[in-house]
Amino acid sequence: MTAVVVSSVTKIFNQGRTDEVAALSDVDLEVRDGEFVSLIGPSGCGKSTLLRLIADLIEPSTGTVTVAGQGAAKARKEQAYGIAFQQAGLFEWRTVLRNVELPLELRGLSKRERKARAEQMLALVGLEDFAGHYPAQLSGGMQQRVAIARALAVQPPLLLMDEPFGALDEMTRERLQSELLGICAKTNTSTVFVTHSISEAVFLSDRVVVMSARPGRITASIEIDLPSRDDAGRQSPAYFDKITEVRQALRGTPASAPSPRSSESAAAGTDAR
Amino acid sequence: MKWARAVLPPVIVGVLAIVAWELTVSLGRIAPFILPAPSAIWNELVEQRQNVWEAALASGENALIGLVAGAALGVLVAMAASRFKPLTEVSIPFAAVLNALPIIALAPILNNMFESTSSIPRRLVTAIIVFFPVFVNTLRGLREVNPIHQELMHTYAADGWTFARKVRLPGALPYVFTGLRQASSLAVIAAVVAEYFGGLQTGLGSRITSAAAFTAYPRAWAFVVGACLLGLVFYLTTLLLERLAMPWRTRLIA
């Protein structure tokens, strides 16, 4: 089964008004089971909008979104996905453990079950010693790890992440990237990951989906196959090749599949350099 | 050491102020009906301690009942108003009018509405005065929800009541206590002052007016000191409750 199917989706905000914005135009996207897909593009290209559509936080203007074989709204109600945002968004009045327990609580798990599961999730992100702390006592990176543990708590088949490492420093970011990969591999979770860091997208993903703005649409889909996803992987020629490929796709000068607007965007690409 | 540094300065200033007061009165030969010396007030306080205690209990009871009733009403109305948008728009000007009303001035009217032995008018005045700060602060807290929390709860498919219970209310607690802190002192003031306008004469307010009427100014001041202490007890209890209710804040200070 496919984790996510987005077919011919268009999203127009403020439709019929003077401030109408076409955020997404005719987008098709498929995420296979267990696949890690990054959405990358300039600000305003609709990558977050696309993630929100999958999460059923907003509804498409036209087209359909299917998550784990059912409509997005139904999937949301069954907690078929976990989600994490750029801000950890922890509940400051709950301890770390009780933050991770919240989605389980709302699912109606017994107190003992959810405590056991939450502890297991905290161990997964290496924070088992901080279960009794309050969020404000943790660093930004630790808070983000709690948010990831919370997103994984219901053991969803799909993980949605909107620039979860965007506010962190480079060192913390790289460590969390490796941790995330380990977790996804261990739990066999499919992931849709929004970022505007090229290196992050290449390092994490099985596939990088490149988007462009006005209107937001998918311009390229680049398969990534690194020899390994560790420090050696970060040094490998394949890694740098893919970074170049994604960068060119972002600038609109793809080596293959020239678009009808290639001459115009090629000129724009030269300008950008 | 840290503790001493926090406590000592205000204590020293307080003691110096009392000494200066005592010296001013005795050396300046100020008539006791203008300003009695602190020593005279202290003597009265010791002599009248039984009366002060009983009057403080009576006023304290009125203040507490009014405070609890007014605060509970304030929180409930704020919850209802935050839940239904039209209610917010209606309730804010309504609450502003209520606040602009000289509520203490209602006391004689309320006294006429009930029997002369009833404690209800004083408690009613207190409750109305308490209502406003609690309502306004709670409403503000309830309306300020982190948008990420809102989206998260949406992804958890949480219904309105769950959302209110797990996110809105705990998130509003700091605001509720800001309102309660103002309200706790106001409650004592209201309960004491309401007695100036008749009704049942068992509390500190009536003792102050009757002592003043008999030109027993040091005694009147002794009851004022009692009212001050009562107000402090209310305020400190609220602070304590605030710490107990929000452990995630106290832990950060510690």
Describe this structure in words.
The complex is a heterodimer of chains A (273) and B (254). Chain A contains 10 helices and 10 strands. Chain A is of the alpha/beta class and 273 residues long. Chain A has a domain at 2-73 and 158-165 and 190-272: 3-Layer(aba) Sandwich (Rossmann fold), CATH 3.40.50.300. A 6-stranded mixed β-sheet of chain A has the order 6-7-8-3-9-10, sandwiched between helices. With 254 residues, chain B is an all-alpha fold. Chain B is 82% helix and 0% strand. Chain B starts with a helix and ends with a helix. The mean pLDDT of chain B is 86. Classes of the chains: A alpha/beta (273), B mainly alpha (254). At the A-B interface, helix 3 of A face helix 7, helix 8 and helix 11 of B.
List keywords for this structure.
heterodimer; A: 273 residues; Rossmann fold; 4-stranded antiparallel beta sheet; 10 strands; 40% helix; globular; B: 254 residues; MetI-like fold; 11 helices
Which helices and strands appear, and what pairs or packs with what?
The complex is a heterodimer of chains A (273) and B (254).
Chain A: E1 2-13, E2 21-32, E3 36-40, H1 47-54, E4 62-67, E5 70-71, H2 72-77, E6 81-84, H3 96-106, H4 111-124, H5 140-152, E7 158-162, H6 170-187, E8 190-195, H7 198-204, E9 207-212, E10 217-223, H8 231-235, H9 237-251, H10 262-272
Parallel strand pairs in A: 3-8, 3-9, 6-7, 7-8
Antiparallel strand pairs in A: 1-2, 1-4, 4-5, 9-10
Chain B: H1 2-27, H2 38-47, H3 49-83, H4 85-100, H5 106-113, H6 120-143, H7 147-155, H8 160-193, H9 204-213, H10 217-245, H11 247-253
Helix pairs in contact in B: 2-10, 3-4, 3-6, 3-8, 3-10, 4-6, 5-6, 6-8, 8-10, 9-10
Termini separation of chain B:
15 Å
- Using a beta-carbon cutoff below 8 angstroms, give the protein chain pair with the largest interface and the number of residues from each chain: A-B, 24 and 21 residues
- Into which percent range does the helicity of residues of chain A fall? 25-40%
Q: Can you identify the CATH superfamily of the domain at 2-73 and 158-165 and 190-272 in chain A?
A: P-loop containing nucleotide triphosphate hydrolases
Task: Look at the structure and give the mean pLDDT of chain B.
Answer: 86
- Classified by CATH, the class of chain B is Mainly Alpha
CATH superfamily of chain B: MetI-like
- Note the run of SSEs of chain A as H and E: EEEHEEHEHHHEHEHEEHHH
User: What is the number of helices of chain A?
Assistant: 10
Helices and strands of chain A: which structural class? Answer: alpha/beta
Q: Helical element count of chain B?
A: 11
Low-confidence stretches of chain A: 257-273
Question: How does CATH name the architecture of chain B?
Answer: Orthogonal Bundle
- The rough form of chain B would be described as globular
How many domain modules of chain B?
1
Overall pLDDT metric of chain A: 84
Largest sheet of chain A: 6 strands, mixed
